[in-house]
Amino acid sequence: MLIDKSITGFLAELKSDSPAPGGGSAAALVGAIGAALGIMVGNLTLGSAKYETVHEQCKGVSLDFEERLASLEKYIDEDTEVFKQVMKAYKLPKNTDEEKQVRIKAIQEFLKAASTLPFTVARTCLDVLELSVKIISIGNVNAASDAAVAGRMAEAAMWSAIYNVRINLGSIKDADFVADMKSRVDDIVARSEVLMDQLVKTANEKI
Amino acid sequence: MLIDKSITGFLAELKSDSPAPGGGSAAALVGAIGAALGIMVGNLTLGSAKYETVHEQCKGVSLDFEERLASLEKYIDEDTEVFKQVMKAYKLPKNTDEEKQVRIKAIQEFLKAASTLPFTVARTCLDVLELSVKIISIGNVNAASDAAVAGRMAEAAMWSAIYNVRINLGSIKDADFVADMKSRVDDIVARSEVLMDQLVKTANEKI
């Protein structure tokens, strides 16, 4: 599995001439890096008596980060798997009308999965961004830069996942599915803009 | 070394209650992920005869990406090392006036190194962003989302490194050093804004 590879090994696989793993798995990984940093800030806050009044609140935020980290780690490999299924569907035989129909149905089905999964990644990264805004506000000020990094990583990972949603939507014939997905993407982009304003404002105050 | 750890192992170390590795090493890693994706887009372009007219140009871009990838992989561990040296300097004895002087001198020296290194990371990530703009413009359109991801990763990594520069500048007494560093950071931020506009515009056209 990708997550068992070394950093060097993962980077080597990423840069190779194979399209998988690509931007989708990278998005999930960078979201996971953001979540892990958020947890570190939580730990550095829980470890300091100076922040005792926010310890309970901080524990809740850390648990929410942990949940997202676990999901994003899982999505690193899942994104590559779903992408490989699309590639496989494109390679199905197309000699007879029946084969053509089976192939097109499979392609459409897997393309939907290959846009639904990065949407879930994007949604989870939005959560990481929201949690980063919470932790930079209440957390240990010595780790404010780490909390700001967590938020920046989450935003970039969200956008990276969105590009992966969009590139697949371009080949999906089901207009209702495409319209619904586009509207859901617009919603999370709008929410992320509000959160980024808050993150940058707090980062500028504390760093 | 951090880069020899598995993805899972690195994330576990990142989220732990130790401040190192933290946002600085994460910034270098995310910049490296961006560079690796850029190289992949280059490979997918060089592998397609359809893009023959840009093959020479693409080879140059890929070589530039490779150079940044190698540097950023190195900075992942270097950032944690320099941060540990700052922590060690803070723990030096301060019983006598001489000890106090030695300690303060060491802290100031390592704080400078701990802001110079993330500045270099930020500068290298700006290069990755610039190269991502080039590759999304000339590269294989099927990998346009990956090129856009490369640019987003580079921008987030640049900002993450900048937060690490800034948090250390806050404790540096050498006013000239601080002013010079701030002005250099402002320059790369201004350049990144122009490049991000180009990246997002091209991404919206191609994805």
Automatic annotation (TrEMBL), chains A, B:
InterPro entries: Cyclodeamin/CycHdrlase (IPR007044), Formintransfe-cycloase-like_sf (IPR036178)
UniProt source species: Pelosinus fermentans B4
Organism placement in taxonomy: Bacteria, Bacillati, Bacillota, Negativicutes, Selenomonadales
Ranges of residues in domain Cyclodeaminase/cyclohydrolase: 6-186
Keyword line: Membrane, Transferase, Transmembrane, Transmembrane helix
Ranges that cross the membrane: 26-46
Alphabetized Gene3D superfamilies for the sequence: Formiminotetrahydrofolate cyclodeaminase monomer, up-and-down helical bundle (1.20.120.680)
GO function term, MF aspect, one: transferase activity
Protein name: Formiminotransferase-cyclodeaminase
A Pfam family reported for this protein in Swiss-Prot or TrEMBL: FTCD_C
